[in-house]
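Exam prep: given the inputs below (a chain plus adenosine-5'-triphosphate), describe the expected output before reading on.
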Amino acid sequence: MRVWRKHGLGNMALNVKELLERRLPAEIVGVLKEAGEEANETGSEAYLVGGVVRDLFLGRGNVDLDVVVEGDAIGLAKRLAERYKVRLVSHSRFGTAKLRFATFSLDIATARTETYSHPGALPAVKPGTIVDDLKRRDFSINAMAVCLMPGRFGGLFDPLGGKEDMDNGLVRVLHDRSFVDDATRILRGIRYEQRLGFRFEENTERLLRRDVKMLHTISGDRLRHELERTLEEEEPERALRRADELGVLQELYLALKGDGWLAKVYRRARRGGRKPLASLYLCLLCYQLSEQEAAGLLEHLNFPARARRAVLDTVRLKKEVNKLASADIKPSAVYELLHTYDNVAIEANLLAGGSPLAKRHLQLYLSKLRYVRTLLDGVDLAALGIAVGPAIGEALNALRAARLDGEVKTRRDEVEFIRSRFLSQD
Ligand code: ATP
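Solution:
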């Protein structure tokens, strides 16, 4: 491995202590120093690793801290939990622990080496050195470590050339079988490339194109997880477009497209500056699919019930929405058509298509009609003399329709409405 030889194992020339102190909150720096001191007392070595180190150089805030320990990770986690009085969840079988501070989380793991028995298998794990632990990682930019030990605090340990790749804006795998071992790295890599404005190093892109088919070795649940993480990006259309271009999206599910249309509706979803729900992005991604195709995707990636409902409602509503393209449709009829659909599906349809008139009705429903409530409730109706049972529901529906259409305003109007429609006057 070229970079490996070039940099050697002991490259700790760069010290990032000042950068740490400048870019991370003082509380976090304090905890990291304490972690180093505690590790020192038991003869362990502790390093800050992974995304937080990468983001430190990029000036991107990241409060998901990962610490790797050569030695007793769980013992260290326990002492820190005690010292800071924070919640600890540990998995002794995996040698990992998580500490939850008020404003950040700290994962502590035993340094390990990983081997894959076959493509897509979950790795077999053994305790190892910090070098082993960095070598098992996905990309060089995620394989840098910062030493936390007293006297060496802040020393960058970068045996795989991550810093140089950072400086050149490159996403590089650590060996030629990386995507074969774990094809989820394909989707991870695309995320990093697009999020950070980087590009795949040439050989990495060649390997990725060669290994796209290995996505078949990954379970639906793991693929879904990667897609969900992609949809949580600030601008998911970038990664989806790139995934399309690299043939990855089609490998995930043939009918998916990450095209210019998608980019346009995603940008529209962000108008007003809010971050859309990942489920809205998912519904928009599926908007162009037929109902059958959408059902196939949901099955293939084993989506949970809520997401299934939102996506299927999206493609079903797409076929109905033109019924709302009429100027004289009453608000109660708009409500009647839409109230059984998932709200995210309605929002997706509003963003994605339909005539201006239909859109106006979708908007009216989302901003107003869905919140309309009658002043009388079931108990009131029973007191007025409506028979307890289905008749109450029917009367309430009629009353809500009257309110939606502006036929009743006050409580007295509602009582009158019920009396005249549902109760005999004599
Ligand atoms: P993000 O900013 O997207 O959360 P992250 O780098 O913090 O990125 P995590 O998914 O939290 O990513 O993983 C933490 C670290 O674990 C990564 O930086 C990487 O070094 C390593 N890692 C995660 N998933 C893999 C994988 N599939 N293969 C190899 N290494 C991985």
